[in-house]
Design goal:
This protein is α+β, with helices and mostly antiparallel strands and 151 residues long. α1 runs antiparallel to α2 and α1 packs parallel to α4. It binds methionine sulfoxide. The site of methionine sulfoxide has 14 residues, from α3 and β6. Methionine sulfoxide binds next to α3 and β6.
């Protein structure tokens, strides 16, 4: 059985190969979603919210219907955007102001996405139907993926 580490290593290699020469953010986002949702376990909802007009607007995603617009500071995504810090939530029902787009989501990780100048352009959100799915391994790899393909 493949470990989480091995699944990330494989995904990173696939992304490096398919995204060679691609800089368009929407194309990069759609491809990251596809490869991670295909390769990783428990990635029930995976997608990007882009910074548009001072709020987070839904961007490319795979999964059930996501909410459209999230204010900075609201829910897990809005907290990630406001603090520009990865949020790992073991039980979303305990997170103050959590926005429930799909009641089946029970844990979540949200990673800030910055451009090469360090400006926030989006957040990357993964939801799992299991509790306590995400840990430092996910943080390390997802932050590495965002830095590699958006900087
Ligand atoms: N759970 C998120 C909202 C976005 S979705 O889950 C797709 C939040 O509280 O930020």
């Amino acid at each position: 059985m493949e470990s989480k580490q091995q699944r990330y290593e494989q995904s990173y290699r696939e992304l490096e190969s398919v995204l060679e020469g691609i800089e368009d953010h929407v194309a990069v986002m759609a491809t990251i979603n596809c490869i991670l949702k295909t390769n990783m376990e428990d990635f029930f909802w995976v997608g990007f919210y882009r910074v548009v007009d001072g709020a987070l607007l839904v961007g490319p995603y795979q999964g059930t219907m996501g909410c459209l617009r999230i204010e900075f500071g609201r829910g897990v995504c809005g907290t990630c955007a406001a603090e520009m810090k990865t949020q790992i939530v073991a039980d979303v029902h305990q997170f103050p102001g959590h926005i429930a787009c799909d009641s089946r989501s029970n844990s979540e990780i949200v990673v800030p996405v910055t451009d090469k100048k360090g400006a926030l352009i989006a957040v990357f959100d993964v939801d799992s139907t299991r509790f306590n799915t995400f840990d430092e391994v996910d943080r390390e790899w997802l932050e590495r993926i965002m830095a590699r393909f958006f900087h």
